[in-house]
């Protein structure tokens, strides 16, 4: 954060706390410079920023005053969360369970590992490593391996995106790409819009970067509510949105092309960045690959983030951001954190993409996932209470389940663990952590007898929860 932004943050906080009240004069630029030790230009910049946001008004010859309608502004803005969005402990617990091979992995964030072309990847990795020389580590520093960026660009060009290798920065997985992009687009204290049910990584990033989340209504049936987005953008000084337009995680919807186009034009009107989380881009079930919203972006307002973690190999940790003219700025952010993604792995993946039959693998993967989705939905219809609502996603490998009250996803999570079954509680996907009537299930494993039996057990547990009966140490109903 720059000095003037930090100063503006402090003053915003003081106005929120009513240390400076509506109509009151704030210290003069000179006095504030004297008191804070910042130069007068820095203080002036901070005051001008606050003026542009509506916190202060400037009166010629008199100085800066707190805006007369400040209370309305403050009450219209959400309070910064008092307690941080604290999903880390639960998330860590759920994540750790993913490694326990004794547990049925319905909570996993990754597809069944047997669906990845392990052998071919290992072959590509060793073949590429043999060609490495002493200079390789340096020549593949950010923005990353040229061939890899070229192949990624080629795939986008085929979808109508005007993208070249120089627009792309290779990162250490999709999450790194997303974090770097959000960090680039915001300063601590800024407002960021996210879907009302969203990927927990977005919530963690907002927490870590000290941003203020603004929820935009979204549902599995209707997708993102663009009217709500437009309204929130008019109400709050939102600097960036983190949204998924294809195979939204965990709701599973994909926005139509028209809505993506409208989304980009709304963001353009408000001069807001979109961090587009498109890590499920290759796992679509429609006949044609859905385009990202970035296709409609003429001004590099969309930072398109992708990854090989979901469709090729989670452990390789290779992702990217299509940053366009912001490529260098993203690389500078990268320089302060991960510096670069692994060079041998970049080379290995690029070798695989050139020689390994990637598209063939993807076709098989999508078809298998689609069959497995049907198998799990059938199991839910067979074993779960009739009142269970389940999504039918447009791709990916997650189902989002909704139960009526008094279902409690935390208690359900613990009861399922006692039966050696891992599920992801809905509370992980929502800022207020009040999605207690939801769970997310990963359907990428084959629905063999063992999995079917586990689904039957989950169904029984869900029935017991809804009947208000305790079947384990913890009672299932919400208190
Ligand atoms: C929506 C979404 N974005 C980003 C990521 C992170 O991707 P990666 O594993 O490539 O860092 C995930 C992983 O679960 C995800 O679900």
TrEMBL record:
Sequence ranges assigned to domain HTH gntR-type in this UniProt record: 1-69
Keywords from the named record: Aminotransferase, DNA-binding, Pyridoxal phosphate, Transcription, Transcription regulation, Transferase
SMART domains to which the protein is assigned, alphabetical: HTH_GNTR
A Pfam match: Aminotran_1_2
Gene3D superfamilies registered for this protein in UniProt: Aspartate Aminotransferase, domain 1, Type I PLP-dependent aspartate aminotransferase-like (Major domain), Winged helix-like DNA-binding domain superfamily/Winged helix DNA-binding domain
Record InterPro entries: Aminotransferase_I/II_large (IPR004839), HTH_trans_reg/aminotransferase (IPR051446), PyrdxlP-dep_Trfase (IPR015424), PyrdxlP-dep_Trfase_major (IPR015421), PyrdxlP-dep_Trfase_small (IPR015422), Tscrpt_reg_HTH_GntR (IPR000524), WH-like_DNA-bd_sf (IPR036388), WH_DNA-bd_sf (IPR036390)
Any GO MF annotation of the entry: DNA-binding transcription factor activity
PANTHER family: HTH-TYPE TRANSCRIPTIONAL REGULATORY PROTEIN GABR (PTHR46577), TRANSCRIPTIONAL REGULATORY PROTEIN (PTHR46577:SF2)
Similarity comment: In the C-terminal section; belongs to the class-I pyridoxal-phosphate-dependent aminotransferase family.
Name under which the protein is recorded: Aminotransferase class I/II-fold pyridoxal phosphate-dependent enzyme
Organism: Photobacterium halotolerans
